[in-house]
Amino acid sequence: MKICILSRDKNLYSTSKLVENAEKRGHEVHVIDPLRCYMNITSHKPSIHFKGEPLEGFSAVIPRIGASITFYGTAVVRQFEMMGVYSVNESVAISRSRDKLRSLQLLSRRGIGLPVTGFSHSTMYTQDLIDLAGGAPLVIKLLEGTQGIGVVLAETNNAAESVIEAFRGLKQNILVQEFIKEANSQDIRCFVVGGKVVAAMMRTGKVGDFRSNIHRGGKAEKIKITPEERSTAVRAAKIMGLNVAGVDILRANHGPVVMEVNSSPGLEGIEAASGKNVADIIIAFIETNAQEGKTKTRGNG
Ligand SMILES: Nc1ncnc2c1ncn2[C@@H]1O[C@H](COP(=O)(O)OP(=O)(O)OP(=O)(O)O)[C@@H](O)[C@H]1O
Ligand SMILES: [Mg+2]
Ligand SMILES: [Mg+2]
């Protein structure tokens, strides 16, 4: 098969592992920087060009679209879909998962356990928003935050009010969320491929930090997840429409709650912690599922 990996950098661990395993399985792989693709969208025959040449003959696309290039990156994936090329995660699903509010709304509609979460554009009724989320202690998050930056624990209602007002003053969109204290600075990353959890890890925050992010000094280790966690992760990925997903779960007293679903989950941490060759599993999934014109949406909407 001729496979296109849409990635900004072929030296990234995840990208190079996918290349290595695809080649090992006998495929021809091209790493293409989506930001350097250009397209003709008015033609009846959609095409994508890269370095002066049309991209042709691909059987599958693996999008590795970072959060900072979602807008243009998903346009390139959508163009591939319009050309009938199979994408392991479709553009619509990637866009959906990048919008945290939309994701939480979709997951809650289908009965997935979530931390009680409030959001508001206006700062006029901050105290009511705090009450809506169950009162302090509360976690306040920048919608655009990543790697634990912009995730704050407010222990009292006064602190919560100050943090919310400060963030809103900076014109940032925020979420206000019930603090799952019993999660104990730990979260679980379930790596889902094709409707199965193929690897899982538990991340533990450094002492004194409730955030488990590796970038904030957290550590990852292998973990055996419960059947309920497994089915929650699988259902969350399915609701988002993602074949490949990293589902982040907290262990709450009342069962697993989903924090978010990632559409381009990294491979390095999960492979190291679980000992699984996740890249190989992704390529194997593509081998059995890639078909010309097989897209749910063909870039619709
Ligand atoms: N409601 C919560 N209750 C308890 N702990 C939480 C809660 N929300 C987040 N945390 C902890 O903080 C960490 C960071 O939060 P979150 O994953 O939402 O933000 P992020 O990592 O900055 O964003 P992203 O995952 O999109 O990069 C989580 O991994 C988890 O350990
Ligand atoms: Mg996170
Ligand atoms: Mg994330």
From TrEMBL:
Keyword Thylakoid: no
Cofactor: Mn(2+); Mg(2+)
InterPro entries in UniProt: ATP-grasp, ATP-grasp_RimK-type, ATP_grasp_subdomain_1, RimK, Rimk_N, Rp_bS6_RimK/Lys_biosynth_LsyX
Keyword Transferase listed: no
GO terms for biological process, alphabetical: SOS response; translation
GO terms, molecular function: ATP binding; metal ion binding; ribosomal S6-glutamic acid ligase activity
Alphabetical list of HAMAP family matching this protein: RimK
Similarity-based family: In the C-terminal section; belongs to the RimK family.
Name this protein carries in UniProt: Probable alpha-L-glutamate ligase
UniProt organism field: Desulfocapsa sulfexigens (strain DSM 10523 / SB164P1)
